[in-house]
Amino acid sequence: MNKYALACAFLASMTSILLGYDGAVISGASLFIKDDLKLTDTQIEILAGIINVSSLLGSVAAGRPHL
Q1: Distance CA 19, CA 55 (A)
Q2: Quick one: which of 40, 28, 6, 11 has its CA closest to 51?
Q3: What b/e string do you get for 38-56 counting C-beta neighbours within 10 Å, with b at 16 or more?
Q4: Strands (DSSP E) found in the chain
Q5: Domain extents for the chain?
Q6: For the whole prediction, is pTM greater than 0.90?
Q7: Mind listing the pLDDT tens digit for each residue in 38-59?
Q8: Could you give the angle at the alpha carbon of 54 between the alpha carbons of 38 and 27, nearest 5°?
Q9: Closest Cα to residue 23, out of 62, 50, 61?
Q10: What residues contact residue 19 under an 8 Å CB cut-off, 6+ apart?
Q11: Sign of the C-alpha dihedral, residues 8, 14, 20, 23?
């Protein structure tokens, strides 16, 4: 078995798991965030969507190939 391919598959699955965990946390915390910051439903949706964008940027920065 190719160890590099196995490591890549493991890291990719961990990224998916952590993204799902972040989504679950923000959905539970959104009720408290909405009350504390007096945000509308649209603003909460934008806040939750930012998690996906920041996750994408973080994974691109962390997995940047060194050519």
Answers
A1: 7
A2: 28
A3: eeeeeebeebbeeeeeeee
A4: none
A5: 3-62
A6: no
A7: 999 999 888 888 877 877 777 7
A8: 45
A9: 50
A10: 51, 52, 55
A11: negative
